[in-house]
Amino acid sequence: MSVAMTALLAQSQQQRRSGAQRQVRTEPKDRRPNRVLFCLSINNPVRKIIIRLVDWKPFEVIILLTIFANCVALAATTPYPESDSNDVNAFLEKLELVFTGIFTAECCLKIIAQGFVMDQNAYLRNFWNVLDFVIVVIGLISILLQRVVSPNTLDIKALRAFRVLRPLRLVSGMPSLQVVLNSIMRAMLPLLHIALLVLFVILIYAIIGLEMFSGKLHGACYKQNHVTRIWTIHDDAQPCDSRPAEELKGWNCIGVDYQETERENWTCFDANPSDKHWRPKPGITERWEGPNSGITNFDNIGLAMLTVFQCITMEGWTDVMYYVTDSMGPEFAWMYFVSLIILGSFFVMNLVLGVLSGRAFNKWNRRCRRFCRRCVKSQVAYWTIIVLVFCNTGVLATQFYDQPLWLENFQNKANYAFVAMFTFEMLLKMYSLGIRTYYSFLFNKFDFFVVIASLTEVALTETNVMPNLGISVLRCARLLRVFKVTRYWSSLRNLVASLLASIKSIASLLLLLFLFIVIFALLGMQLFGGKFNFETSEKPRSNFDSFWQSLITVFQILTGEDWNVVMYNGINSNGGVGSLVGILVAFYFVILFICGNYILLNVFLAIAVDNLADSDNSEDDKKETDEEQEKKDGEGGEQADGAGEGGQGGDGDGGDDGKNPDGIVGENSRAASGMERSIRLDLGGDDDDIDRRMPTLGEEPEGDGDGGDDSEAEETPVTTARPRRLSELNIKEKVRPIPEASSLFVFSSTNRFRVLCHRICNHSYFGSVVLVCILVSSAMLAAEEPVNSENPRNKILNKFDYFFTTVFTIEIILKVTAYGLVLHDGSFCRQAFNLLDILVVVTYGVILHKGSFCRSTFNLLDLLVVSVALMSLFSPSDTFSVVKILRVLRVLRPLRAINRAKGLKHVVQCVIVAVKSIGNIMLVTFLLEFMFAVIGVQLFKGKFRKCNDGSKSTEAECQGYFIFYKDNDISKPVMKEREWENEDLNFDDVAHAMLSLFATSTFEGWPGLLYMSIDSDKEGQGGTYNNRPPMALFYVAFIIVIAFFMVNIFVGFVIVTFQQEGEQEYRNCELDKNQRKCIEFALKAKPVRRYIPQRRLQYKIWWFVTSTPFEYGIFLLIMLNTIALAMKFEGQPETYSSVLDYFNMLFTAIFTIEFILKLVAFSFRNYFSDLWNVLDFVIVLGSYIDIISSKIVSSKATISISFFRLFRAMRLVKLLNRGEHLRTLLWTFIKSFQALPYVALLILMLFFIYAVIGMQMFGKIRL
């Protein structure tokens, strides 16, 4: 979904680019209708005055200011529980009448000036005017209803909620916002097809969950009081398996409380009155509603779809999986949820992969004219400033909590020194370059801001004016000067210039995103303001009780962190799942998440990547331009591409050298020159492109899968003579000959033993045997039990470990003997992956000569793995930590398989190239995160510490002991010592700050860090609730810059690198991609042969089953079957269940008739040659198995009935064959699967390695 937006943006960018080639023509002014409202002509004096007023520019400005004032009034409203109010809210309600009157007057004036609806340019013919009109009418209706009925009724509150749409009226007054929003609206149509597929996946999994997990999440742990014999539910209730012991597969409440397991007996009950096996228990009056107040379950289709949607967003999906596992065992739970995440989150949400690239590079040449300017721009001056910037950075990074006094004094004196030197540099540049020249460059403007901020900070701190308000943060702005190093780093300079250029492009979108957040924050205040008050728990920090808090909560939902928890609170605050209002408010959160996270934030990324220049391509283009210029000028030499020497070099603040001085495109030149952008869209692996890439000539012709032909219409195989890709050719790998140099100074190239070793190494079975040994030994690593080292299974596995280590050692010896170790070309260690093999066998090897064993990275990998295995096997004891580490390193064995699988090896090599190419992005991201870390240290160092006794606020008071009650039970008092504790994530020094910010950039748990920062007070003093709300801006800025922008740019660079690597084999081809596609299509295209039977009766049946009415009829029956499947709910009556079972039998019979008719019409061979028909047959057959098993198989059978119920939901898959766009998306989906086996294998290998490492290192930790 994310990049379907990119596709539409690509279209709009292309239209904009083609429009830029034409001269811009101003559209004529809207024609006014001759008569409006059937009475006012164009010559009416009143209408003339109104037209002049409407066209008057200040009138539009006044309306915009009124809208802004209305937004401020809406934000100033404070919602209270139980519809309470205060004087401010009462005043704002009166002020609302004034705003409504102004907007009503504006509406009436525009209707009189433009006409109402009949004319082509009438008022209601414009979308934004329609929005204004609807808002005004709803406002008037709400005012009238307030006079008639109580203002606190639900209808009036719902109408008031529409007032939050008024900020959208700002869009009608800002053309730049209209452009962005119109582009998004045009993107809705392609997004609709992907949305249908997403809805289809959600519906299928919801119905499967309804069939398999309905009513399974209501079992909970109860305990019986031995005196009263009353059963009470556990305080922290969670699903459990209430079946008898012989059928038990889930969790049965054992170990629910380690302190009380010995004394109290917990039992799992599912108090379901509709269950005929249920016997009432004393004290159990009602059934447990389920997890998250009954919101997370599969009891009906609505809640099932909501639960599936939450899982697709990947927020809290593991909790749902564990709930299901606890209630019914892991039999189907992991398959259901893992497949949902892979299909729903990884593939369906990212079907269309778009990569946008842009180029915007500006150059200018100026020469030095003054001696003073030469001094300022000299390399000595430049590098002196760079050294000072890095020294300043180092001094700022040395700050930490509770630092010694001498270090603080040194930092202060160093600060004064740096301020003086940077001030001297600024004044010298102003004097030598002139004020106009100095201010013509971006970095000089930034230097001026930094120096003024530094002087202001020094003045404020020395005069003790506001000394404790974080003014020292201003000095952290100097850290940005470190980017001046890009002057001599061309690729990094281009990257920084492109990132800065993108800031201008996304400004309008940022404003639109802010309006979106404001609207949903105001709507959230209307729906949930003052309602997040629950008796059983504290008030959640993420609430809608004020405008500022609403903004933070909406932004948190946009990031996806704990958005489902906020939704649960919103549903419970409006009556829970038992209330219609409680269910309806869930749409607020779903719409907010989809529009904000999946659409707006991805458009943000698309525009950012559009302005990001690929540094490698830009360098190539620049070199080509230089070469062409050299040819024109008749110069034979190559002009210098980097910085000039002496007077032509330096930091370029004067701008006289051959490129932008500080590596940043100047503002004026950038504004004057149009940016040429090119957008490349990838759809299912094919590039619809404009980039110059080296082509290939198609692929092998594939079958169309549209049925087939019988003996009456036999299709002959189609062959085409054409050049093919190198990757398509199945060329037998050439055997590497024995190097002529001697091996290990002993074996010559003709030695019989060496020749024998060479033959063994190159035998076809040798590699297969080694690969099987690698896989089996890897599986044995996973089978070890780290908790009980004396387990007999571990002893058996250790014996096999000796065997496999011996096999790998023999392999290394054979290869080293055959190819030599390292001295000559072709030796074992000359290949990277052989080095991995060696590492398992030998600790290290000396790389000496070409062609030897150790000159290969893969050989060194083999050597490493075998070395570690030998050292771990022959180590005498496990007591040494080094030995334990070596044994953990045995998990590197699966990496040896990389050298044996060509496709996997190619993927790994692409990953290595990608890592090399994104070094600049990593550097910029690191520098930005480092700067935020230094600012965080200035703001929060030592302020996250607090006493574990909440009644003590300072470190001096946090002494002695205090009493707390376990589980909030006054009968369980516990004495505990007071401690002044620090949070795990803090900003006490730069290292901890960067770790905290890295956790924030992953979006995991960042709201907790945010609220700790908001509550923070002085050093040595505990936090105070909502003490510093503006501190949220620090996290918002960090998330936008790093998480929304830089991290996604990082991912984009990896994608581009993979695409470029995939095009390397076409680099010598003269055809571009469009020409290549035309040739491929011409070579692959073949006529579709349609089967038409010759027999009369068979022909009539064939005509009937292929007719349009029959197709629509089957489509309608599938939809009715879907509705019937979705009508199931937990606790339904027995009669209702019987009716649904009859419907299932009816639909099964109808689809059986369809199968028989098509089988007769197409004959056996032609019918089963179409995969869709095969799927229909499997579904019909599975449906009969489902019906028979439900009648015969008992609940205690080995095969679960729930498995066969999957065939009911599979009928929905038949819908995919009924829509052209859905078939296209399904084809793209399947193609993406075909292209990802080796990538998926690499990911699986990494998962396996880290899982085994985790098992070995953390297996004995008790949770």
CATH class of the domain at 192-350: Mainly Alpha
Shape: globular
Which structural class is indicated by helix and strand composition?
mainly alpha
Determine Rg (CA atoms, Å): 36 Å
Largest sheet: 3 strands, antiparallel
What is the terminal-to-terminal distance? 39 Å
Assign the CATH architecture of the domain at 192-350: Orthogonal Bundle
Low-confidence stretches: 1-29, 258-263, 352-369, 467-471, 634-732, 840-850, 877-883, 1195-1199
Strand content is 5-15%
Q: Given the structure, what is the number of helices? A: 45
Helix content: 55-70%
* Major β-sheet strand ordering: 4-3-5
What name does CATH use for the topology of the domain at 192-350? Helix Hairpins
- Average predicted confidence as pLDDT: 70
Annotation, overall tally of beta strands: 14
Family: Belongs to the calcium channel alpha-1 subunit (TC 1.A.1.11) family.
Biased composition (Acidic residues): 699-715
Organism: Macrostomum lignano
InterPro entries: Ion_trans_dom, VDCC_alpha-1_subunit, VDCCAlpha1, Volt_channel_dom_sf
How would you portray this structure in words?
This protein has 1263 residues and is mostly helical. Among the domains are: 31-175, Voltage-gated potassium channels. Chain C (Four Helix Bundle (Hemerythrin (Met), subunit A), Up-down Bundle); 192-350, Helix Hairpins (Orthogonal Bundle), CATH 1.10.287; 519-611, Helix Hairpins (Orthogonal Bundle); 1096-1218, Up-down Bundle (Four Helix Bundle (Hemerythrin (Met), subunit A)). The strands form six sheets. It has a three-stranded antiparallel sheet, with no helix packed on it. α15 (405-433) packs across α17 and α18 (490-505) crosses α23 (586-611). The longest helix has 35 residues, at 1134-1168. The radius of gyration is 36 Å and the shape is globular. Mean pLDDT is 70; it is low at 1-29, 258-263, 352-369, 467-471, 634-732, 840-850, 877-883 and 1195-1199. Residues 10-23 have a biased composition (Low complexity). Residues 10-29, 615-723 are annotated as: Disordered. It is found in: Membrane. Residues 637-652 have a biased composition (Gly residues). The chain crosses the membrane at residues 58-77, 97-118, 130-149, 187-208, 301-324, 336-359, 380-401, 413-431, 495-523, 577-601, 764-782, 802-822, 834-851, 863-886, 907-935, 1032-1058, 1101-1127, 1139-1161, 1167-1185, 1235-1253.
